[in-house]
């Protein structure tokens, strides 16, 4: 918990991008179900009745894929930068939480440039590193790394004025 008198230089919550809204999901599943049902009826009318059941299995597989995707999108990371420390609070898709506090005076923000799919955004302190924003796109990682570096510079300037 942050003391009330501390200045917060960054308070960001990172979450995965959503593929569809709830309403979009319902519309997409209705369109898929209608299309598969009509295709199944066409095959049934030609005497291939079992195809209708397999179309139902396809619909169930698509629904399951969306369900798994939505469960994974519950992940979030909160990054708070103050003059004293960087506070990291991560909640995974299953609801497990992890906390870390890194002194802002000794923290480093590292990201391999140019940012690619395998370059991770890390907050380092000594020989320990915390990877954050794995679900962000490379462009988002670069942008967030720059904003985090600026917040860290401002926090250090408060603590150690020139």
TrEMBL record:
What keywords are assigned to this protein? Membrane, Transmembrane, Transmembrane helix
* Listed transmembrane segments: 25-45, 51-70
What's the protein here called? DUF2244 domain-containing protein
């Amino acid at each position: 918990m942050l003391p009330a008198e501390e200045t917060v230089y960054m308070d960001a919550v990172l979450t995965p991008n959503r593929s569809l809204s709830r309403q979009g999901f319902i519309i997409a599943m209705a369109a898929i179900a209608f299309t598969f049902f009509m295709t199944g009826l066409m095959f049934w009318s030609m005497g291939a009745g079992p195809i209708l059941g397999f179309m139902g299995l396809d619909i169930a597989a698509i629904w399951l894929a969306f369900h798994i995707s939505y469960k994974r999108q519950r992940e979030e990371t909160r990054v708070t930068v103050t003059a004293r420390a960087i506070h990291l609070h991560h909640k995974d898709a299953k609801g497990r939480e992890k906390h870390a506090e890194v002194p802002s005076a000794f923290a480093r923000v590292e990201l391999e440039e140019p940012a690619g799919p395998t370059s991770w955004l890390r907050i380092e302190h000594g020989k320990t590193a915390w990877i954050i924003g794995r679900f962000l796109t490379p462009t988002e990682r670069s942008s967030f790394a720059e904003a985090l570096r600026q917040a860290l510079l401002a926090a250090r300037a408060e603590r150690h004025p020139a």
